[in-house]
Amino acid sequence: MNEIKQPKSKKMLKVGILGSLTAAICCFTPLLVFGLAGVGLSGLVGGIDYLVFPILFASLGMIAYALYIRSGNQNASPKPIIAILVVAFSALIIWLEFKFALRISLAAVALVAIYGFYLRSAKK
Which of 32, 69, 81, 93 could form a disulfide with 9 if both were Cys (CB 3.0 to 4.6 A apart)? Predict the structure, then answer.
């Protein structure tokens, strides 16, 4: 059964990393603003953070779940906890009006990294 889930986790990990990198680039650089302005959609720039930051946190959640699947851990699934954290981080960043966006995003990345190290150490 682990052999069946291994390709799924590999694909989830790749998609999660690609999604989080893309969202991070769009959040923290003016790349998305220039791209939207270039095609005449600069009116959408004002609300784009309300979409991009939740995508960032959802991608990080996907990475965390892919790491759980890859670990082969048979304990209770962390899906509900990951979903709650994704919603909590998204709500927090919107509630604080993006004032601490970099700090909150780095905290989310750090949590995923710590979780990955935890799963790796628990596997041994």
Answer: 69
